[in-house]
Specification:
By secondary structure, this protein is an all-alpha fold. Helix content is 65%, strand content 0%. The protein contains four helices and no strands.
């Protein structure tokens, strides 16, 4: 197996959030799904315009609140940071290729 030796849990949370966000963003960019809240996130995005990453963050934070009694406070905070980084990265990857550009040429000849 491939492992990256990271000793700091906070750095591991940030790095894993970034990697997960890129992966989820690419899955959605290719009209795929990874299970879990995917279908619900897409439906909410279509109906309300709420970004998929924001929905993922809210839904997963809700799940984390139920797990709060089972993990340490440090682990809960690191997990929420990881979810935030995942959310931001997912939305960034999904919006990366949607930028439109416009050029206006003003000329007396045309």
């Amino acid at each position: 197996t491939f492992t990256i030796p990271v000793n700091d849990p906070l750095l591991a949370g940030i790095a894993s959030g970034a990697v997960m966000g890129v992966g989820i963003g690419f899955i959605f960019r290719s009209s795929g799904g990874g299970g879990g809240f995917d279908v619900l996130a897409v439906l909410v995005n279509i109906k309300t315009g709420i970004r998929i990453g924001v929905f993922y963050f809210a839904a997963n934070c809700t799940v984390m609140m139920f797990a709060a009694t089972q993990v340490s406070t440090d682990m809960l905070i690191i997990s929420i940071i990881m979810l935030f980084v995942t959310s931001v990265t997912t939305d960034s990857v999904m919006g990366m290729f949607n930028q439109r550009k416009e050029v206006k040429i003003i000329s007396r000849e045309h």
